[in-house]
Amino acid sequence: MFNWEDLHYFMVFARERSLSAAARSLKVDHATVARRIANLEASLALKLVDRRPRSYLLTADGQRIAAQGDSMTLNAFAVSRAALSGRQGIAGEVTLSVPPVMGLKLIAPRIAQLQHRYPDLQLILLADTANVSLLRGEADIAIRLSRVSESDLVARKIGSVEFSLYANSNYLRATPEGECGFIGYHDERAASVQQKWLQQRAGERPLVIRSNDLMIQAAAAAAGAGIALLPHFVGQELGLERLTASGSLEREIWLTVHDDIRHAPGIAAVTEFLLDCYAGVAGIIRLVDNAG
Predict the structure, then answer these.
(1) pLDDT attached to residue 291
(2) Helix or strand (DSSP H, E) at 272
(3) In a 10 Å sphere around its CB, with 0-12 CB exposed, 13-18 middle and 19+ buried, how is residue 45 labelled?
(4) Could you count the other beta carbons within 10 Å of the beta carbon of residue 242?
(5) Whole-angstrom distance between the N-terminal and C-terminal Cα of the chain?
(6) Are strands 249-258 and 241-242 parallel, antiparallel or unpaired?
(7) Spatial separation of the C-alpha atoms in residues 169 and 243, rounded to whole Å
(8) What are the tens digits of pLDDT across the range 76-125?
(9) How far is residue 116's CA from residue 222's CA, in Å, rounded to a whole number?
(10) Taking a C-beta distance cutoff of 8 angstroms, is the pair 27, 55 a contact?
(11) In terms of DSSP bridges, do strands 55-58 and 49-52 run parallel, antiparallel, or are they unpaired?
(12) Which are the contacts of 147, defined by CB distance < 8 A and separation ≥ 6?
């Protein structure tokens, strides 16, 4: 009999199509993913991947096992959700996926409140720019800036957040308007709504700094390195000057949970906590009236 955890690692690799991407998703090193795949091959007595100098490719048997394993994985997560929904007390682990800047600025500073209220509840906070899969158990709750489309997920709009261009006021005074540089995302997020909006305003002017981390962009703007597109709550906290003439970008904030577990006590407790976190920045983030 094979090890279920080995199958899980193989399934993530089959979905991501590379060891490095699977390792990032699983938050392990690529050698661990390779070892788990080798273990599964030994248990099944099948060659699942072709090992090439720079890549692993699924064999025909690997593709067949991946297709079979996908439904098995979804069923396993359905069992986990059923167990979670049956818990009576507010205890155990709840995994939350949230955009990094919101996790850092809005949620992490208030986690002690959740601990004091529910000492038997452990919050796992994943700061993700990519959408995790609630169907595959990668998180229990997700905060995102767009609505999900999967039918088994319940998406609740809890508010909206505005982004504007911000820069150090000394930088703006010392740099001619047409020579200001822009700070944006690295290539992996070039298709994001924020990056496209920034590029439209930048026009032909270069991105002088690119980073996949919004707080690094904010820190660079605060140091006078250029103009960055930031949420108002970040720009204001850092004392940056807002370029009001460029307008603003509004993104909706959606709280998403699987329908099977949304009434579980732990999930309900974390949901209430999240609404409190966002209410704490009212006026900067606009909440939906009567969100309950």
Answers:
(1) 46
(2) helix 265-279
(3) exposed
(4) 16
(5) 47
(6) unpaired
(7) 10
(8) 555 555 555 555 578 888 999 999 999 999 999 999 999 999 999 999 99
(9) 35
(10) no
(11) antiparallel
(12) 155, 157, 252, 254
